[in-house]
Amino acid sequence: MSSSYKEDLTPTLMSKDPDLIEADEISQGIGAAQDAARMQRVVSFYEKLPRGPAPEIKASGLLGRYQARYFGKNPSAAPIVHVIGFLIVLGYCNEYYFHLRHHKNNAH
Q1: What is the Cα 95 distance to its own chain's centre?
Q2: Residues 47-75 pLDDT 10s
Q3: How far, in Å, CA of 20 to CA of 25, rounded?
Q4: Which of 68, 66, 102 is nearest to 86 (CA)?
Q5: Which residues neighbour 102 within 8 Å (Cβ) at sequence distance 6 or greater?
Q6: Of 11, 27, 64, 108, which residue is least crowded by CB atoms under 10 Å?
Q7: Alpha-carbon distance values, 7 to 17, 20, 55 (Å)
Q8: What are the CA-CA distances from residue 24 to residues 19, 29, 33, 39, 87 (Å)?
């Protein structure tokens, strides 16, 4: 293949009707102005956006501070210990309410 890309397209473009080529050029010109305006709106939108990293959000509320402390930059296993302790306390409270309070003064 010794022919270039430009030489391959030349016969195709020349074989078109001149009125069609003119209509194609006109439609491209009209569409190009709309595309340029649309692209300018996109560019202006992105120019207004802040640059650089987002500011770090300060944790607020009980759960937010807990997450920031234990799941933030230095995560730890303390929440697992907290859950285990909570389950032990909850289990003892249930055991006391449903069984142990009846043995407070009298033997079973």
Answers
A1: 46
A2: 999 999 988 888 899 999 999 999 988 99
A3: 9
A4: 66
A5: 108
A6: 108
A7: 19, 21, 57
A8: 9, 9, 14, 21, 75
